[in-house]
Each structure stands twice: as structure tokens, then as C-alpha cells.
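SEQUENCE-TO-STRUCTURE ENTRY
===========================
Question of interest: how does this chain fold, as expressed in C-alpha cells?
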Amino acid sequence: MIAGTNDGIISEIAAKIEAGGRVTFDEGVILAEQADLLELGRLANRVRERKNGNFAYYNTNIHLNPTNVCVYRCVFCAFRSDLKDAKRYTFTDDMILERVAEAKAAGATEIHVVGGLHHQKGFDWYLNVVRVIHEACPEIHIKAWTAVEINWFSYLTKQSTRRVLEQMRDAGLGSMPGGGAEIFHADVRDKICEHKADGEEWIKIHREAHELGLRTNATMLYGHIDQPMHWVDHLCRLRTLQDQTHGFQTFIPLAFHPDNTGLDHVTKPSGLTDLRVMALSRIMLDNFDHIKAYWIMLGEKTAQVALSFGADDLDGTVVHELIYHDAGAKTPEGLTVDQIHRLIIEAGRIPVERDTLYRRVIREGNGSTWRIGEPIRVNDSRVATVSV
């Protein structure tokens, strides 16, 4: 990145951001390519402060990846398996119930469900995953199935994606994760995942989810064959949909991990790139309330620093995450609440436990029971700090 090439223009853009104005596509590219990283971080932190004060959020969650067998062969994926691979697996109902029991005992407020597109499993099998979880523990929020999976279910059933979403919602689906977005721009997407749902289909499915009352997240996978203009294009498309539906909750920039993928010759993005993308995302997505520093992919140390570069959320305990660990992530497969508190407090922020819908969680007794508190307000002094 070359600093100083367009100092005057960058100063004008900075003034616009300070005043609460919206950054255009061209301005976003200039920031991505030429802005000084610390200045970019300062601006992103101003936006974060306006939206979230000094709070940093987390949740208590468990992941469930019900199968790694997948019909697609995306070159960036290390998680997928063929039907005859030694590492293949598929959960039974009893295995799902074991995971639910573990989540309940841990006081988890959310189960995050994504997996492979198993070509020998019908739509009813995937629908049953949601139903089994919901019937076993109706109080836990089910965040499940990316837009790519919803698109696959539509293909299997010959039903519209809207009808697929309706059936999932009726079975107990609470919201959708943001995975499968990768990079929307066709120049990149066609090379890294050419056969699965394209960017337009991803946007359409999330629009339908929002119209059905389902909140969703959004992601972007960066640091492979993408360029800064692809980041800005991706962010602008998300911003446009959010203007129209207001259905996104949070955006998660995902750093590419090349190990065990078809792109293992690519150098993993540096910590400086991670922070640049984080800050740019916070600045561009002016209509998103939250930006998440996903510690699983960034690592705990970079995630801490990201709390000063626009991020206001660290995700959560994230027990049993497999997808990014298969791609070489060296982070733990889970953090305790005390560890998350420490990370947040050391970063100078106030930790606040939230549920999936960003409502404050109040723990009772030994912590395994909980209730939803009042909505979180940026300057709410009643949100107590915690110590470790």
C-alpha cells in the first residue's frame, strides 16, 4: 500500500467520514489501496464509537457441522470430503442430541449449523437437523444454513428458495449465518467456486430471509486471488441490500487460510491486511450496526487489536468449529467466557454478553441458566464491567 499518493483526496474522505457521510465506491478503493493504516483505523474507530460506544460483544455458542461430505469442490475449502474419504462423517440424530445436551449444559444461547452439501441426503435430512435441535431445546437459537446451502435445498426439492426458508423457519430456524458469500465479483468467484450459487443468488436469498423476518449475517473471504477493488465492490453490494431491508445484523471479514486447500501456494494475509480490511469494512458499511473480529480466523491477538480498528464483536466461545481449523487455523477450538473477557478488557473495552439477536444476556445461578435483558444502549452505564 502506498501512502501519500492522494493525501488531499484522503483528507477529504476522512472529513466526510468524521461528519457521518457515506463513502463511495471510488473513495473506498482509494482508502483500501492508499490510506495510511493507522489513519484508516482511527476513522473506523470513530464509526465504531458512534455505533457501539466502548462495548465489545460476545456470545456463548457451539458449532455443529453435521456432515463434511460435499458435492462441490471449491478450491479454497479444506473442510469438504468425498463420500469414500477416510475423514468423511455424517451426524445421526443421537449425535445431534449429544451436541444439544452439551450446549445446554454450557449455557449456550446459540447453535451455529453449517456443513457440506451431501449428495445422498435429501432436504428432509437437513430440515430434520433443525427440527431435532429445536424440539430438544426450544430456548436455544438456531443459526443455520448459508445461502449456498439454501440454494442447494431448492435444487433438491425443485421448490423456490423462499419456500425452503419458510419450511426451515417453521421447523425452528432463528437466523442465518453469512457464509458462502466469499467474493461476489464474478472475476474472482468464478475461479474459486464456479459451480455454487453466485453473488446475485446469495443476495436474493438473504433478501428473502429478511422479508420473512429472519435476521442474517454477512461475510467476505479475502486474501486469496482478490484485490482491494473486489473488497469494495462486495461491501457496496451488501450496503445496498441493507439500505433496502435492514435485515443484516453483523458483518464478518474472513481471512483466507490456505493450508490443505487448492490454493495452498497463496500466502496467508498478514495481520496488517486483516486490520486494513476490518477498518475498511467498518467505514464502508455505515448501515451495519456490528462488525465482528472472528478470533478463530484472525487469532486472539489480531482480534484484540481489531477492537480498535472498527470491530465491536469477537464472536463467542465457538466450541467444535471445524471448517477453518481444517484449513490450518492454529487457534483453539474454543475459548472460555473468562478468556474472552480477558481479551476484551485488555483491549480497553467493556465485555457484554449478547444473544444471536444482540440482546443482553443475564446469567443466573452457576451460569448455565440465563435470561434476556433489556436492549443494549451505547451509553448504558448499567452494563456492568467484569473482571477476570
Observations:
- The chain has 15 helices and twelve strands.
